[in-house]
């Protein structure tokens, strides 16, 4: 059977709560930022829950030597926030993965053509083998920005099966494109919404995540 994109929607009361807060048009900017940060935290937690590079070792407790499972320091962890909106998930993700390297990728969408262009690219020339990659992109809408980001990441020798996308709201057009081009990817999202409108916004969605997070 051909590989198929895996999309996880964790059934977690905190994720549902903060999604509800983020969706509410009456939520003030400061609380919206908190909601996105919390979603970044809990979705990253869920994304690392079942598979992550650990090693078995021993440590000395104050009383005795005992077995310990630790994050393997030899395996690089890369977190890639897609600017602007992806920044709103970053501090939450970093509370879960403080040792990760952060590679900023700045993409901007032309509101008329809906085409994306890259204005900042801090990705490495190539990713070391086995690098665990976590992309922060809260809104998977038309798929334009995530497909552009995936192009940049794939051409740097990333193992796509080790790439996890953290999103808050995902819509079918983006998920379909990812499934067609990168079926071994893993997506973690708080919800899958019905679709997008003519302006490329997810409905019901939560509006413009970047504008709401940064108040601009
Ligand atoms: N980007 C956003 O911020 N919101 C959407 O609904 C779609 C893309």
UniProtKB/TrEMBL annotation:
<dbReference type="Pfam" id="PF14681">
    <property type="entry name" value="UPRTase"/>
</dbReference>
<dbReference type="InterPro" id="IPR000836">
    <property type="entry name" value="PRTase_dom"/>
</dbReference>
<comment type="similarity">
    <text>Belongs to the UPRTase family.</text>
</comment>
<keyword id="KW-0021">Allosteric enzyme</keyword>
<protein>
    <recommendedName>
        <fullName>Uracil phosphoribosyltransferase</fullName>
        <ecNumber>2.4.2.9</ecNumber>
    </recommendedName>
</protein>
<comment type="pathway">
    <text>Pyrimidine metabolism; UMP biosynthesis via salvage pathway; UMP from uracil: step 1/1.</text>
</comment>
<keyword id="KW-0547">Nucleotide-binding</keyword>
<dbReference type="InterPro" id="IPR029057">
    <property type="entry name" value="PRTase-like"/>
</dbReference>
<dbReference type="GO" id="GO:0044206">
    <property type="term" value="P:UMP salvage"/>
</dbReference>
<dbReference type="GO" id="GO:0004845">
    <property type="term" value="F:uracil phosphoribosyltransferase activity"/>
</dbReference>
<feature type="domain" description="Phosphoribosyltransferase">
    <location>
        <begin position="9"/>
        <end position="216"/>
    </location>
</feature>
<keyword id="KW-0808">Transferase</keyword>
<dbReference type="GO" id="GO:0006223">
    <property type="term" value="P:uracil salvage"/>
</dbReference>
<comment type="function">
    <text>Catalyzes the conversion of uracil and 5-phospho-alpha-D-ribose 1-diphosphate (PRPP) to UMP and diphosphate.</text>
</comment>
<dbReference type="GO" id="GO:0005525">
    <property type="term" value="F:GTP binding"/>
</dbReference>
<keyword id="KW-0342">GTP-binding</keyword>
<keyword id="KW-0328">Glycosyltransferase</keyword>
<dbReference type="InterPro" id="IPR050054">
    <property type="entry name" value="UPRTase/APRTase"/>
</dbReference>
<dbReference type="GO" id="GO:0005737">
    <property type="term" value="C:cytoplasm"/>
</dbReference>
<dbReference type="InterPro" id="IPR005765">
    <property type="entry name" value="UPRT"/>
</dbReference>
